[in-house]
Amino acid sequence: MSVYRVAVVFCLLMLIGECRIHKLTFEGDTRRQIGLTTFGLLKGGRINVNVTRFQYQNDVGFGISLDKAKSEGVSAYMENHNEKCALKDDLSKVPESYSTIRFIMDFHRGRVNFTRLGDDLHTLSLATSKVQIGNDSLPLLEEAPKKYSFDFQVSVDHDDEEGLYNLFFHNCYGYESVSAFNLTVHIEEKNGENYLSAGEMPLPYLYGTFSALSFCLAMVWIVVLRRHRESVFKIHYLMLGLLFAKTLSMMFHAVNYHFIALEGKHEAAWAILYYITHLLRGILLFIAIVLIGAGWNFIKHVLSTRDKKIFAIILPLQVLANVASIIFEESEESDPRYTTWKEIFVLVDLICYGVILFPVVWSIRHLQQASKVDGKAATNLEKLRLFRLFYVVIVCFIYFTRIIVYLLKITVPFKYSWMEEFFRETATLFFFIYVGYSFRPASDNPYLRLPLSDDEADMDDVVVTFPQNETTTRLHRSKENSHDLD
Question: Contact at 8 Å (CB) between 87 and 110?
Fold first, then answer.
C-alpha cells in the first residue's frame, strides 16, 4: 500500500495547478471541438479570455463559441454537432432558445467577427484590452509571422444575463480532414471578488459544516464505545477511524475551496492533504462495509477464502478509482485525459460498489441455512432480517449517490449545483448513522447476541461462531473479543 500512496502523492505534485486562472497550451492539436471551460456567472461576474500564439495549417473556420445554459445538462443542440462544425450553422435554423456568441477568425481582414444569438445576450458587455471594439468584430493581431492573438472580456451586468457559460474552441476544417494547430489560451473567471463558479460559492461552508457533523458523530461513537467496552470489536475502532478520516477530508476540502475562492488557485499543501485523507476515507469505507457484510468479529473471527479474494479485488480497484478521481478533478476540461479518467472513475467506482455486495449476499445465504437449525432459529432470523435490511440500504445508497445525485446535478439551475454535494454528503452521513446504530456494541443488539448453543460449525458453512470460553454475560471476554485477520 505504501507504493500506491507514494504514487498518488507524486501524481498530486505533478497535477495540482491553477483552478480558476487557466493557462491552456495546445501543440499540434487536431481535435475538432475543445471544451475550454465551464463557469457560472452571476451579476457582476466576468470572464477574461486571451488567445495568443495561434498558428494553423489550413485557413478554414477557426473560432470560439461562448454558450449560455441554465444547468449542467448538455443541450440537444450541441449534441447534434458531432459531425458538423457549430460555426457554420445557418443562423435561421438555430433554435430560439439557444444563446451563444460566436467568434470567427478572419485572417485576411485581421479581425475576429462575432455574432450574438439569443435575446438575453444582445446586451452582454464585450470589451477588449487592445483596441476599441467594433459593433461586430474584435481586432486580430499578428504578433509574429503566422502567429495571431486576440482577447476579449465578457461581463454580466443584468440579471437576465446570468447563466452557466461554456467556452469552446472550434476547428471546422477538422470535420473534413486532419488539421493541426498551435494555441495558448489564458482564461480568468470571477464572480465579483470570488473566483468560484456560482454553484460552487457555498461549498467551503458546506464542507466545513459536514466536517463538524462528522466530528460530532465521532465523539458520539467514542462515548458509545466507552459505555459498552465489553462488546467492542476491532471493527468498531475501524469505524471510528473512518469518521475521523471523513472529518479531516471535509475540513481540508473546505480550506482548499476557501483559497480557490480568494486566489483563484489551489494551495498545494491543502489540496494534497485533502486527497490523501480522501483516499484513506474511501479505503476505510470499503473495508468496513466488506468486513461487516462478511460478519468478521461479529459472527465469525476469521475471514473465509472467498472473503479474502474480495479484499484482493476491492482494495486495488478502490486505489485506482481514487487515483482516477484525482487526475480528472485536477485536469483541465480541455485535457484529453479529463474525459478518459472520468469514465474510468465512474466504471471502477460502480464495480467496487457491486463487488462489496457479494459478502452480504453470502452472509444472508448462510444465515438462511443457519436459521433452520433447532435452537438457533430465533437468533439467526433476527440476524437475517438485519442483513437483508443492510443489503437494501447499501443498494439504495449506491443508487442515490451515483444516479439520483447525478440526475439532480444536470437538472437543477446552475446556481444550485452545490446541492449535488449537499445530498451526496447528507446521504453518506445518514448511511454512517444507520451502520453505526445497526452494528453498535450493545448487549441488546441482535447482531451481537450470543447463539443459544455452544456448538461451533465450519466457518464457510455456518457463520455463527464465537470463542469457546465466551460467556453469555460477556464479562470476561475483554481479551477474546478481537482477533487478527487470518
Answer: no
| Average confidence (pLDDT) over 79-98 | 70
Residue 61 near residue 173, CB atoms below 8 Å: yes
Nearest to 247 by CA among 432, 483, 94, 96: 432
Is pLDDT larger for residue 231 or for residue 236?
Answer: 236
Instruction: Dig out the grid coordinates for 47 from the structure.
Output: 470572464
Q: Hey, how many other C-beta atoms are within 10 angstroms of the C-beta on 412?
A: 18
Q: Which amino acid belongs to residue 117?
A: L
Exposed/middle/buried for residue 149 (C-beta within 10 Å: 0-12, 13-18, 19+):
middle
**Half-sphere exposure at residue 261, Cβ-oriented, CA atoms within 13 angstroms:** 16
For residue 478, the tally of other CB atoms under 10 A from its CB is 11
3-state secondary structure the chain: CHHHHHHHHHHHHHHCCECCEEEEEEEEECCCEEEEEEEEECCCEEEEEEEEEEEECCCCCEEEEEEEECCCCCCHHHHCCCCCCHHHCCHHHCCCCCEEEEEEEECCCCEEEEEEECHHHCCCEEECCCCCCCCCEEECEEEECCEEEEEEEEECCCHHHCEEEEEEEEEHHHHCCCCCEEEEEEEEEEECCECCCHHHCCHHHHHHHHHHHHHHHHHHHHHHHHHCHHHCCHHHHHHHHHHHHHHHHHHHHHHHHHHHHHHCECCHHHHHHHHHHHHHHHHHHHHHHHHHHHCECCCECCCCHHHHHHHHHHHHHHHHHHHHHHHHHHCCCCCHHHHHHHHHHHHHHHHHHHHCHHHHHHHHHHHHHHCCCCCCHHHHHHHHHHHHHHHHHHHHHHHHHHHHHHHHHHHCCHHHCCHHHHHHHHHHHHHHHHHHHHCCCCCCCHHHCCCCCCCCCCCCCCCCCCCCCCCCCCCCCCCCCCCCCC
Pairwise CA distance, residues 33 & 188, whole Å: 21
**Residue 416, burial from CB neighbour count under 10 angstroms (0-12, 13-18, 19+):** middle
Render pLDDT for 130-171 as a digit per residue (tens, 0 to 9).
Answer: 665 667 888 888 888 888 999 999 999 988 889 999 999 988
- Percent of the chain scoring above 70 in pLDDT: 78
Distance CA 403, CA 409 (A): 10
Do the strands 45-56 and 147-155 form a parallel or antiparallel pair, or are they unpaired? Answer: antiparallel
Decide: pTM greater than 0.85: no
